[in-house]
């Protein structure tokens, strides 16, 4: 089977014209809920919903939309202007999917992953180990449904054996038309070269013309699958590296003060990852 990919529009996508001074915000799910088994704090959820009523807010995650539903309450998802799930290959609106980038991974690629599973020396592999998105594959040898303790056990084993970097190096040689990322301590993310997260920026700004894009990404996302998004930023667009909901809350407090004052925003004391 030959690899094939395409971008499809599902249903109707609104295209509002934005004011020249509008800011649009993009949050990494891992900055809002750092634990893949956690759920957004209810007090912070109310705070975020209130902010999303004042400025368009989007979510980006390497997880599938089912995980987003588990980690974010429904009222938060409805408050967002959109959710870019599965590394941004899907855009979900308040109630349904709106855009999808689709790709057929080749038999050779799947056979390579089967070989990886069979030859891995990790003693406690758990099925299923693959999570398929419309144009993404995530592999976790500890199991896609593994517990926090099981993932921690694999992470400790991986630090000693260095299996994942070797897998990535071999993959890049064999499949140059795809990209592979270390998107967590325990998982690898595969995307076709025909798709990059730079398209997330394009989709947002197509809906919010002349807006400034402000992103809050986790350190791991920013150096892996979301790196093309960061590299695509233009003048006046900023991505900040944040690690916890408290960092996000602090940054948003500066934005709220700016909106109330109507003047230039003060400089937030959080390290800048990218400032174009």
Explain this structure to me?
- There is one protein chain.
- This protein is α/β, with parallel strands linked by helices.
- 38% of the residues lie in helices and 22% in strands.
- The protein has eleven helices and 13 strands.
- The strands form two sheets. Strands 1-6-5-4-3-2-11-12-13 form a nine-stranded mixed sheet.
- A hairpin with a 4-residue loop joins strand 7 and strand 8.
Q: What integer value in Å does the Rg equal?
A: 19 Å
User: What is the arithmetic mean of pLDDT?
Assistant: 87
Give the number of DSSP strands: 13
Pick out the low-confidence regions.
Answer: 1-20, 263-276
Distance between the termini: 41 Å
Shape: globular
The ordered string of helix (H) and strand (E) elements is EEHHEHHEEEHEEHHEEHEHHEHE
For this structure, the quaternary state is single chain
Write a concise synopsis of the structure shown.
With 276 residues, the chain is an alpha/beta fold.
């Amino acid at each position: 089977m030959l690899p094939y990919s395409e971008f499809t529009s599902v249903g109707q996508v609104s295209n509002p014209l934005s004011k020249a001074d509008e800011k649009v915000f993009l949050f990494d799910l891992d900055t809002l809920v750092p634990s893949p088994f956690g759920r957004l704090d209810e007090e912070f959820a109310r705070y975020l919903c209130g902010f999303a009523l004042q400025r368009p807010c989007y979510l980006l995650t390497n997880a599938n939309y089912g995980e987003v539903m588990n980690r974010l309450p429904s009222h938060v998802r409805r408050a967002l202007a959109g959710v870019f799930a599965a590394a941004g290959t899907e855009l979900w609106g308040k109630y349904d999917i709106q855009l999808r980038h689709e790709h057929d991974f080749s038999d050779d690629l799947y056979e390579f992953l089967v070989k990886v599973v069979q030859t891995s020396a990790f003693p406690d592999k758990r099925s299923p180990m693959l999570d398929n998105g419309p144009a993404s594959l995530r592999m976790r040898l500890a199991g896609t449904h593994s517990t926090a303790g099981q993932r921690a056990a694999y992470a400790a084993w991986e630090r000693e054996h260095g299996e994942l970097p070797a897998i990535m190096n071999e993959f890049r040689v064999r499949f140059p038309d795809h990209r592979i990322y270390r998107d967590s301590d325990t998982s690898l993310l595969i995307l076709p070269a025909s798709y990059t997260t730079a398209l997330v920026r394009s989709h947002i700004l197509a809906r919010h013309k002349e807006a400034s894009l402000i992103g809050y990404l986790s350190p791991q996302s920013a150096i892996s699958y979301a790196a093309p998004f960061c590299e695509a930023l233009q003048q006046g667009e900023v991505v900040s590296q944040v690690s916890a909901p408290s960092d996000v809350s602090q940054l948003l407090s500066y934005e709220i003060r700016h909106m109330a004052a109507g003047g230039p925003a003060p400089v937030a004391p959080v390290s800048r990852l990218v400032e174009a």
